[in-house]
């Protein structure tokens, strides 16, 4: 008897959908790639053909140059070989998708990275009933329970108001996290200009072009130091303690990341204001999602696989860890 999902083959460099002769999020160039979202640990350049959402293709174009892309809108279904392929929102970053694969009466959902919390910069996660659910496990430990997003943004605004002669310098990844912090600030009523590092400009413009409200953004280059006092300044994490930050008015160093739950990480990065803000599901979101979807099997990728596999086995859900490589915490 054939095993469930035996037409999907996990390899270290990606998931091969054999009857479609296509790969999901391959870390090496392939002939046919199905890409869940634009982060560099999932979307690589050099593929002969790429199927992804229009937003993800735009992000890949911006990062790697023009792609031979086939846009697939949310809710649209295409056929590759004998496999029906659909893209459904994952709630991770702009354009992020779960890839739904239907073949001979079986349904496999490769969720990519996802979260369940509201995010003004991307479409919300949509649960899809399936036989096999391939889930991430970035924060798959019970210690990781992310706080309320609004409370974290309020901490940032309060620190800014309490220190009008300083700026708050927020380190946030260039794709997704930076735009989310800005959009969340706007939703909390912070309409003042926000100053940005040059490395964030291109993707902020892309988000704005796709209808995400980011408000007035001003590049730091050439702005007098005193003009940035009392303002939020955004930069990639690598610039937090770089010479670049010396041009700022006595910055309060903040970082937006799910890893700010770990105090040692905050101390290592000299972060004065840790903001626990993640684009990945926390422990409760992961387990609640598995309970809601109720798949026959769960395949777990990149992260704390052991804890989530154990949780599944305790509930008589067949589970396995996939030995995929090349996935990083770029988008935490």
Structure, explained:
With 332 residues, the protein is an alpha/beta fold. Strand 18, helix 7 and strand 19 form a beta-alpha-beta unit. It starts with 7 loop residues before the first strand and ends in an 11-residue tail after the last strand. It contains 7 helices and 19 strands. It is globular and about 70 Å long. A 7-stranded mixed sheet has the order 7-8-9-10-11-18-19, covered by helices on one side. The chain has a 6-stranded mixed sheet with strand order 1-2-3-4-5-6. 23% of the residues lie in helices and 25% in strands. Its EC number is 3.1.-.-. Keywords: Exonuclease, Hydrolase, Ligase, Nuclease. This is Ligase-associated DNA damage response exonuclease. GO terms for molecular function: exonuclease activity; ligase activity.
The H/E string reads: EEEEEHEEEEEEHEHEHEEEHEHEHE
Spatial order of strands in the largest sheet: 7-8-9-10-11-18-19
Largest sheet: 7 strands, mixed
Shape: globular
The proportion of strand residues reads 25-35%
- Report low-confidence residues grouped into runs of 5 or more: none
Radius of gyration of CA atoms, rounded to a whole number = 20 Å
Structural class based on helices, strands and sheet pairing: alpha/beta
Kindly, what is the distance between the CA atoms of the first and last residues, rounded to a whole number of angstroms? Answer: 41 Å
| Continuous helix count | 7
Q: Average pLDDT, to the nearest integer?
A: 94
The proportion of residues forming helix, as a percent range, comes to 10-25%
Q: How many strand units?
A: 19
Organism: Sphingomonas aurea
GO molecular function: exonuclease activity; ligase activity
Keywords: Exonuclease, Hydrolase, Ligase, Nuclease
Protein name: Ligase-associated DNA damage response exonuclease
């Amino acid at each position: 008897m054939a095993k469930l999902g035996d037409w999907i083959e996990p390899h270290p460099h990606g998931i091969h959908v054999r009857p479609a002769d296509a790969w999901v999020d391959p870390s090496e160039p392939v002939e046919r790639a199905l890409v869940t979202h634009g982060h560099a640990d999932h979307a690589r350049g050099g593929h002969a053909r790429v199927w992804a959402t229009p937003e993800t293709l735009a992000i890949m174009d911006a990062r790697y140059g023009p792609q031979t892309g086939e846009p697939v809108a949310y809710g649209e279904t295409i056929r590759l070989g004998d496999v029906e392929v659909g893209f459904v929102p994952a709630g991770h970053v702009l354009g992020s998708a779960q890839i739904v694969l239907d073949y001979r009466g079986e349904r496999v959902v490769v969720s990519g990275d996802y979260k369940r919390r509201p995010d003004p910069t991307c479409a919300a996660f949509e649960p899809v009933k399936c036989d096999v659910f391939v889930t991430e496990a970035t924060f798959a430990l019970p210690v990781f329970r992310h706080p309320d997003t609004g409370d974290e943004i309020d901490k940032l605004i309060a620190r800014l108001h309490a220190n009008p002669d300083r700026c708050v310098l927020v380190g946030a990844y260039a794709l997704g996290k930076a735009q989310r912090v800005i959009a969340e600030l706007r939703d909390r009523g912070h309409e003042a200009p926000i100053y940005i590092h040059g490395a964030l400009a291109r993707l902020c413009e892309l988000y704005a072009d796709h209808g995400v409200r980011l408000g007035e953004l001003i590049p730091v280059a050439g702005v007098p130091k005193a003009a940035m006092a009392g303002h939020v300044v955004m930069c990639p994490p690598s610039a937090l303690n770089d010479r670049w930050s010396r041009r700022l008015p006595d910055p309060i160093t903040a970082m937006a990341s799910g890893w700010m739950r770990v105090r040692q990480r905050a101390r290592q990065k000299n972060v004065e204001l840790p903001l626990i803000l993640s684009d990945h599901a926390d422990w409760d979101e992961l387990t609640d999602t598995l309970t809601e979807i109720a798949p026959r099997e769960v395949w777990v990728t990149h992260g704390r696989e052991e804890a989530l596999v154990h949780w599944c086995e305790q509930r008589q859900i067949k589970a396995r860890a996939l030995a995929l490589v090349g996935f990083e915490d770029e988008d935490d």
